[in-house]
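If you are new to this repository, start here. Below is one unmodified record pulled from the training split, so you can see the exact layout before writing a loader.
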Amino acid sequence: MSVNLSVVLDNIAAPVIVGTPIKDNTGKIIDFDIVYTNEEVKKAAGFIMQNKPKWSDFSMNITSDIPWFKMALDAIAGRFYDDIKYFSPSTQAWYKIEMKYVPSEKYIIITFINITSEREYYRKLKKTLITDPMTGFSNRTGFADTFAITLETARFKKYRAALLVVDIDNLQNINDSLGSAAGDQVILDVADVLKQFQREYIQIFRYGDDEFAVIITNFESDDSLVNFIDCIFDAFQLKQISVSGGISMFPANTEQKEEMIRFADMAVHYAKKNGKNSFFYFEPEMQRVFIQHLTLQTKMNEALLGSCFTQYYQPQFDIQSGKLRGFEALIRWHDDELGTISPAVFIPLAEESGLIVPIGKWVLRTAITTLKTWQAKYDFRGIISVNVSPIQLLCDNFLQELEELILEYKVDPELLEIEITEGVMINNMGDAIDKLRHIKAMGIRVSLDDFGTGYSSLSYLQMLPLNTLKIDKAFINDITSKDGVQATITRSIIDMVEKMGLETIAEGVENKEQLELLHKFNCNFVQGFLRGKPMPYQLCDAYLAGDVNALLKN
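And here is the target side for that same chain:
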């Protein structure tokens, strides 16, 4: 009895595809001709193939997530894949992919084995493992599986999808200051807000300790998505919960799952950098900036390892006598490829990446080494002021390392000044104040930089153990303007600080008119291009040796 193999294969429940290799002139396999498909393939693929297409034409219509061509080449070589799975939006079923090579006929046989019931069993078993016990939402693992299926379905049905990542602002600070119970309550409050919006096409996940993910599908237009996202944000504002959110869209931003997640995370990061408590949609410019920052961070690592940073020193002068008070140590970075990189660009990135800690250690050690050298060569009794990042200051071992440097180089601690910014007041204020008091008790001076540009208030000044207050350049720029507003403010600051027993340094003094007014206001010290620009060690050394022409001025 003859057997009609075509009829047999068409009645097999599993989709089957048969292909033959296509070779170029050198005998290299470059593609496969599909010579046969059974009826089940049409159901699983969701369309009917015409004219026996090439495998490269057909495979991308199934899914781009599977390395079809490589699998076929490996099957010919006798290597097989055991765990390649594919979800068909057409049949809403999961298939395991098997490939076998028949050398005698030169056939590649691809079989799609339906494993939906098996996966459903394990899905139910797994549900207990992927549910967040605190909120009842699926956790990050559940999100990964669901998001993959969502995008495959959206791609097949050609509808829009979006991912919203919601990050709770300052949760760590809440845990540190009020306790973990207070932090847990904020998490539950965020979950309660999001539960209001859970629908068939809106799925919510506990994405991380302080993050939630919202998958939104099948919305009619970008405007309808924006309106929905606005409703979620307004609900948080109504409950007075501060969150930062990032949104990426399919297919407008990308059709790839990992890119969707990465782009939403970039948008969250952008929201955080722009003051928090806001939602941002991903824009291609964010990716360009991200790549630029990543490149800069890599180069910063290399510069740190290769000792490519240099230290400059800007002189400070007594405004009454004109005598040198000392120098502020300023880090500089020149890259062979990127040129000179401003500290205003790389310092915030260093703080964000954590590199500010090793960089800060290098700055502090270099400054103390310089102070030791000048003490020995010139009996230098001026002050070396060193900027210390809030992140560096709050490191557990900062005080110990500072003490060890003072002992190692045997410098007079009264000639060292730790310069902080108002950022120390943002995170863990109590710890920062305790450390500054310890520093002052060691005999080291403490200076507050950039006063008036951030979080400063009279209460902060009274709490911080300061010796010196630096008036920011923003106040000095217009001090000579005719309306007199900046002059009045600056004079008030100087009078107030003087009554508190603190010294004042005016930054950014660039002309004689500014200097004369500051002299009249009884400001103690000045720093700026009028009296001296930041200089490399060699010029400072020459100036201390008696060469007054070594000083760089306007």
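Two things worth knowing about this chain: Residues 131-282 form a domain with the Alpha-Beta Plaits fold (CATH 3.30.70.270). The CA atoms of residues 270 and 280 lie 7 Å apart.
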